[in-house]
Design a protein that fits this description.
The protein is built from ten helices and seven strands. With 317 residues, the chain is of the alpha/beta class. The protein folds into two domains: 227 residues, Spore Coat Polysaccharide Biosynthesis Protein SpsA, Chain A (Alpha-Beta Complex), CATH 3.90.550.10; 75 residues. The protein is elongated, with a radius of gyration of 24 Å.
């Protein structure tokens, strides 16, 4: 793509926390790949020289005091005005040279999100132990629940249309925000694509802020919460089946005794089984009601999304 002829306003968004060893190189690389883009570095309470080095490299530096990548993303999406947004981490592991091609695909195919996937083109030492396996497991879980295949749900390298950014609620606080981004696109059935991009190792002395187990459990909790919010009928139907099964297991011995003797000697068990069955049907009723509420909420989100113009095609007139 000839970036000099690109008419759309492009903003490169870089959330940062203690990335003084890499942020200068990241800004320089994206300045070279996208010379007309505005590069924003949002410093998230860094205790090192991240902000100063980013400014010296030519970035527009802003501060977000609420800790967490999700909080930074919310602020960036609220503040920055552009037609195309490139989101990238400040750790210098993503390939800046891939950005023009990702933007071209977004505009030519009139997409709302292009994800730079890492799991087929990465340095063997780039992923800490457990990260690759955890990524595949969580990505597979989302695919199973929401019914559309994605290969790298946790990628921090993405290109968005304006209407994606301005319709995204950004409710998460931490690293689970990538999950929220993916589910937002899947739920509104947005046109999205994935592009394989190189993924490199962090420089010596630079450490990942993602903690395998702590953040993995947070991401898993976010998936479950989104499952409950976006698929309430399925979620509460599964809960109904589980509770009903427990109630039946408890009730069968009581029923057999009653048929044989006409007595109910285990009266507390009978009460417990009845109570659990009532809870089961209450769960099913909640699922039906919340499914109608979710449908209305999804329609409003869809209308808000459609109120913003789609990306302009780069095809020749």
């Amino acid at each position: 793509m000839d970036t000099d002829r690109l008419k759309e306003r492009v903003a490169v968004l870089v959330p940062c926390y203690n990335e003084e060893k890499t942020i200068g190189q990241v800004v320089e690389d994206f300045r070279r790949a996208l010379p007309k883009a505005d590069i924003y570095v949002y410093d998230n309470n860094s205790s090192d020289e991240t902000a100063r080095l980013a400014a010296e490299a030519g970035a527009i530096v802003r501060l977000e005091r609420h800790q967490g990548k999700g909080n930074v993303l919310r602020r960036m999406f609220s503040d920055v005005e552009a037609d195309v947004y490139v989101l990238v981490d400040g750790d210098n592991t993503y390939d800046a040279a891939s950005a023009p091609g990702m933007i071209t695909k977004l505009l030519t195919d009139r997409l709302d999100m292009v994800v730079g996937t890492r799991l087929t083109a990465f340095d063997e030492t780039a992923f800490p132990p457990g990260h690759e396996w955890g990524n595949k497991l969580l990505t597979g879980f989302v695919t199973l629940i929401f019914g559309r295949e994605v290969t790298d749900m946790l990628s921090g390298y993405r290109v968005f249309s304006r209407r994606f950014v301005k319709s995204f609620p950004a409710l998460s606080k931490g690293f689970e925000t990538e999950t929220e981004l993916t589910v937002h696109a899947l739920e509104l059935r947005m046109p999205v694509a994935e592009v394989v991009t190189p993924y490199g190792q962090r420089p010596l002395g630079s450490e990942s802020k993602l903690k395998t187990f702590r953040d993995g459990f947070r991401i898993l909790k976010t998936i479950v919460d989104l499952f409950k919010e976006e698929r309430p009928l399925i979620f509460f139907s599964l809960l109904f089946v589980l509770l009903a099964l427990v109630a039946v297991i408890l009730a069968v011995p009581v029923f057999i005794t009653y048929v044989g003797t006409g007595l109910v000697p285990r009266f507390p068990t009978a009460i417990l089984a009845t109570g659990i069955m009532i809870l089961a049907f209450l769960s099913l009723a909640c699922g039906v009601i919340l499914d109608m509420v979710t449908l209305g909420r999804r329609e409003l989100k869809r209308l808000n999304y459609l109120s913003i113009p789609a990306p302009r095609s780069q095809e020749k007139d």
